């Protein structure tokens, strides 16, 4: 009888078998397990919106922008070979003790105390004195700036302050080529200059043109190209942040304010619009530290275009000249004169022999228009007159004695030594007594010694006169354009102004610094 044997696998065996079978099934279904296969992460890549680049503009204009290197004739410290400028610890040579080593040295080898160096004859020379004491200066680099070609035959525009006093000029192009240049002309009033390269090979240069800056808006992009700190061609970008800036550099200030990074060495370099045209010439920066703080000033293309054209043609700029000293018309002054708006240029004094004086313009007149075009302020008048061709007859509208009049003037040529105003007489050293008080104005006055006006003897520090800058020693020569010689005459003019409904009166005041007008309230007391 056969024996039946039963076999029961252990739980551990079953578990091993199931695991192996499961792995086999997994491999058949999915291939190599994940932990066995090698994995690679994708690099980060972001699809950003397309932003306009300045690259095309820069590629196009860079060949036209140059660096300007200026050399000057450096003179010897002294033309007198016997003169010395030594300073020994704050003392001169003669103040040194007789036994001082330096004094003994100069006595032995010649020096400032009349030693052999001073006694030599006119034909004798000593070491270091190769031409008998008649050494000439030699050229040394003195400044470096920027510029740009304005014509294919090599005319270059830059700043006057870059080339001023220069004796030799070298142009470095963006490819490193160096070319000699000569000064064609310069204009200090607009800080512009024109150079011309020595173009012996009749080379045609890449050049740029001026833009119509009347279409330039605040907020427009500009690209400044130049040579900051002598580094070579450098490009920065920014926007036009303001127009018509007056920075006090001259009578024709009308700068574009730019927020691009402009530094020393950028002077004379162009500021381009996105069409590659010059909208301005970088000239000045506002910087307490001397470096870029984000505010730069550029000469507008409209100003530069006319000046550059004159310099290329004649090497100079001929400007019109009216010959009157002027000041702004404030709201108070306009009210005192009965003007509806605070605009125009108030004539302080016509210069003797000037076109303005010959035409009958008087102190106290307000010039409101030139050939029918409204005058905004003194700077506007100065620019408009300067733009008139000398010898041209123009028609000025002036506000005089409460009404508008017309004056015809033959504009003359502005010479280099012409001043905006005539010399002013200083206040007399000795003044008579008889002090009179004008309580309503907060001042006391005494008659002037020469009989011309009254002199301010005292000013109430809490008065409007003090707030407007009237000081002791100032001389009042007229009130509401009427000459006065006493406090009584001032009172009469003021009373008449009150009857006419005026709340302010116009006082002409002379100081050591010149003459000016100021308006004082008269409706009290």
Structure characterization notes:
This protein is α+β, with helices and mostly antiparallel strands and 525 residues long. It is 18% helix and 30% strand. It contains eleven helices and 27 strands. It has helices spanning 11-30, 55-61, 101-109, 116-119, 160-163, 301-314, 331-337, 355-358, 378-386, 464-467, 487-499; strands at 65-74, 138-149, 155-158, 168-172, 178-187, 192-197, 221-226, 234-245, 255-258, 270-272, 278-285, 296-300, 320-321, 324-328, 345-350, 366-370, 373-374, 393-400, 403-410, 412-413, 436-438, 443-447, 454-459, 475-479, 482-483, 504-511, 514-521. The N and C termini lie far apart (152 Å). Residues 1-5, 76-91, 116-130 and 419-434 have low confidence and may be disordered. Its main location: periplasm.
Summarize the structure.
The protein has 525 residues and is of the alpha+beta class. The chain is built from eleven helices and 27 strands.
What key attributes describe this structure?
Probable periplasmic serine endoprotease DegP-like; six-stranded antiparallel β-barrel; alpha+beta; Pept_S1C_Do; single chain; 525 residues; repeat; 11 helices; signal; EC 3.4.21.107
SSE inventory with pairings:
Layout: H1 11-30, H2 55-61, E1 65-74, H3 101-109, H4 116-119, E2 138-149, E3 155-158, H5 160-163, E4 168-172, E5 178-187, E6 192-197, E7 221-226, E8 234-245, E9 255-258, E10 270-272, E11 278-285, E12 296-300, H6 301-314, E13 320-321, E14 324-328, H7 331-337, E15 345-350, H8 355-358, E16 366-370, E17 373-374, H9 378-386, E18 393-400, E19 403-410, E20 412-413, E21 436-438, E22 443-447, E23 454-459, H10 464-467, E24 475-479, E25 482-483, H11 487-499, E26 504-511, E27 514-521
Antiparallel strand pairs: 1-2, 1-4, 2-3, 3-6, 4-5, 5-6, 7-8, 7-10, 8-9, 9-12, 10-11, 11-12, 13-20, 14-15, 15-16, 16-17, 16-18, 18-19, 21-22, 22-23, 23-24, 24-25, 24-26, 26-27
